[in-house]
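Q: What residues go here?
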């Protein structure tokens, strides 16, 4: 008898829906978070979201957060709380920036534990999809993330090097 939960899909029709969907799946993360976006906005600096990520990272030393962005420059201005988490959990968080060959990817997504995801159809649009407990559909995003990760390089680190 199969006890896997049935996939649940919810259309996202605005930024409020999108932000709530991200918070929903971040709270469910148990092992791995894969995040691809153009850049990270102020939502990733909210107390609630950074607390969800912090709890996720503290739950198990093997938990990981991998982020790939087209533009990492705004993180200093918009995401100081996330950067603080990076300093405290540098072993578990990796932030990359896409190389030129991957700059044409335009649909942000976040996948948790290879079974749930939020997908925005274009970074300039607010329409998207929240999929919970759908490992089959999530697998395609996990593979895409791996391809984007390969076409990226480390961009933000926990320490500042210099003299």
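A:
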């Amino acid at each position: 008898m199969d006890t896997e939960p049935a996939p649940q899909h919810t259309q996202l029709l605005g930024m409020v829906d999108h932000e709530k969907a991200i918070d929903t799946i971040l709270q469910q993360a148990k092992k791995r978070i894969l995040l691809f976006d153009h850049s990270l906005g102020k939502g990733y600096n909210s107390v609630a979201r950074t607390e969800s990520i912090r709890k996720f990272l503290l739950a198990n030393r093997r938990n990981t957060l991998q982020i790939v962005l087209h533009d990492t420059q705004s993180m200093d201005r918009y995401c100081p709380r996330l950067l603080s988490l990076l300093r405290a959990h540098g072993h578990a968080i990796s932030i990359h920036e896409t190389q030129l060959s991957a700059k044409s990817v335009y649909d942000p997504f976040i996948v948790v534990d290879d079974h749930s995801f939020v997908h925005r159809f274009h970074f300039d649009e607010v329409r998207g999809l929240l999929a919970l407990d759908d490992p089959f559909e999530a697998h395609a995003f996990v593979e895409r993330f791996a391809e984007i990760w390969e076409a990226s390089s480390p961009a933000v680190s926990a320490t500042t090097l210099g003299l």
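A: Context that may help when evaluating the design: The longest helix spans residues 135-150. Helices lie at 15-28, 47-59, 75-78, 80-88, 135-150.
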